[in-house]
């Protein structure tokens, strides 16, 4: 669509007219934040009676399966509809076998949540880095993640998650063909109604630092640049998203969010599927740190950042701010922001 500008401008055109009164500003605001946009990440760790704050992520904790349900109830009571689970197992091995064990950390957590808070949508992160002794996102052969061997283990992991009640699975390992393999495995096991939210354009980013401390998932050697995307690339994100949709992704994700708003916008404009953005740990930590130092107004900055992600085109936002923002939405505080 090409807009033909009228040939007379000022003083006929006065953009400030629409900014003078708050109800007018409210009427013409193009972007809104809703409780329905939010997905809250939750970390669970093997053990009992745990609620351990993550030092670089104030307000975010690691729970054990027995304590997590209280947190999930709080999340539900705030009006948040969905959460995504990350597990820290007590047993790590070369292949990450905890991920497909009936007594694995995610399976135990799913059992609890589905029994006590069945109405909340539970998404599981599907990866291996938190579960392997070497911290890489799959089976390592000769110092490199072997793509196709990893696919076999991903299939076992998703079927086990679905058997324990996961409502959606979110593969995050940037393994080629992962969406297709997972779709086939779920369908064969009778779970053709379980959607896949693919971490399609996931960059090799320094913004994951605090998460790796939280999830004990930093690689013990090397880095993730042989599977996660190069930060200089946008067109490659198109290719990754396109391939994931062909393979059966129902929702595609761009991650991180803030340094990649151009990618979110491109994906939203190019593809007719919902777009998720992951507002990652480092993005959260920077705001909380600035707030703690007294250098910025953390609440206002948070709202502004989340609006930027929505404005870029994200339909869903995975964010550690979900509880904070839900509280503001419920108290009408976002309204006062404008
Ligand atoms: C991989 C995974 C990571 C994050 C989500 N899923 C870490 C990584 O790729 O190293 C990062 C999320 C965040 O930083 O908040 N399982």
Describe the structure.
The chain has helices at residues 22-28, 65-77, 105-116, 147-163, 178-188, 209-215, 235-247, 261-270, 281-292, 298-312, 322-331, 333-337, and strands at residues 38-45, 51-54, 57-63, 82-88, 121-126, 140-141, 144-145, 168-171, 197-202, 251-255, 275-279, 316-319. The strands form 2 sheets. Strands 1, 2, 3, 4, 5, 8, 9, 10, 11 and 12 form a 10-stranded mixed β-sheet that branches. Strands 6-7 form a two-stranded antiparallel sheet. The longest helix has 17 residues, at 147-163. It has 12 helices and 12 strands. Ligand PBG binds next to helix 6.
Give me the secondary-structure category: alpha/beta
Tell me which ligands are bound. Answer: ligand PBG
Rg, nearest Å: 21 Å
What is the average of the pLDDT values?
96
Number of contiguous helices: 12
CATH architecture: Alpha-Beta Barrel
Task: Offer a quick outline of the entry.
With 338 residues, this protein is of the alpha/beta class. It contains twelve helices and twelve strands. Helix content is 39%, strand content 18%.
Properties at a glance:
338 residues; 10-stranded mixed sheet; 12 helices; 39% helix; binds ligand PBG
Question: Strands, helices and their partners?
Answer:
Layout: H1 22-28, E1 38-45, E2 51-54, E3 57-63, H2 65-77, E4 82-88, H3 105-116, E5 121-126, E6 140-141, E7 144-145, H4 147-163, E8 168-171, H5 178-188, E9 197-202, H6 209-215, H7 235-247, E10 251-255, H8 261-270, E11 275-279, H9 281-292, H10 298-312, E12 316-319, H11 322-331, H12 333-337
Parallel strand pairs: 1-3, 1-4, 1-12, 4-5, 5-8, 9-10, 10-11, 11-12
Antiparallel strand pairs: 2-3, 6-7
Helix pairs in contact: 2-3, 4-5, 5-7, 8-10, 9-10
The chain binds ligand PBG.
């Amino acid at each position: 669509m090409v807009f033909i500008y009228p040939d007379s401008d000022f003083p006929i055109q006065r953009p400030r007219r629409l900014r003078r009164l708050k109800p007018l500003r409210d009427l013409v605001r193009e972007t809104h934040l809703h409780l329905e946009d939010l997905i809250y990440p939750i970390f669970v760790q093997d053990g009992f009676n745990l609620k351990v704050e993550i030092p670089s992520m104030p307000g975010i904790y690691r729970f054990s399966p027995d304590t997590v349900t209280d947190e999930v109830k709080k999340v539900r009571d705030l009006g948040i509809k969905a959460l995504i689970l990350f597990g820290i197992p007590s047993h790590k091995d070369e292949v990450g076998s905890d991920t497909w064990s009936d007594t694995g950390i995610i399976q135990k957590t799913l059992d609890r949540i589905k029994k006590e808070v069945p109405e909340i949508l539970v998404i599981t992160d599907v990866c291996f880095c938190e579960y392997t002794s070497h911290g890489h996102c799959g089976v390592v052969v000769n110092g490199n993640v072997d793509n196709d061997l990893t696919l076999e283990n991903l299939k076992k992991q998703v079927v086990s998650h679905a058997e324990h009640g996961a409502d959606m699975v979110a593969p995050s390992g940037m393994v080629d063909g992962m969406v297709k393999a997972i779709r086939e495995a779920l369908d064969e096991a009778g779970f053709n109604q379980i959607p896949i939210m693919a971490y399609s354009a996931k960059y090799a980013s320094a913004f994951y630092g605090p998460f790796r401390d939280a999830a004990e998932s930093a690689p013990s050697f090397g880095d993730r640049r042989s599977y996660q995307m190069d930060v200089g690339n946008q067109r490659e994100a198109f290719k990754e998203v396109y391939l994931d949709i062909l393979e059966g992704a129902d929702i595609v994700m761009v991650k991180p969010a803030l340094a990649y708003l151009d990618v979110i916008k491109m994906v939203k404009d190019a593809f007719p599927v919902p777009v998720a953005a992951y507002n990652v740990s480092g993005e959260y930590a920077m705001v909380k740190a600035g707030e703690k130092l007294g250098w910025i107004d953390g609440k206002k900055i948070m709202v502004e950042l989340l609006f930027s992600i929505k404005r870029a085109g994200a339909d869903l936002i995975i964010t550690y701010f979900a509880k904070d923002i839900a509280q503001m939405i419920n108290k009408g505080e976002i309204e006062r922001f404008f």
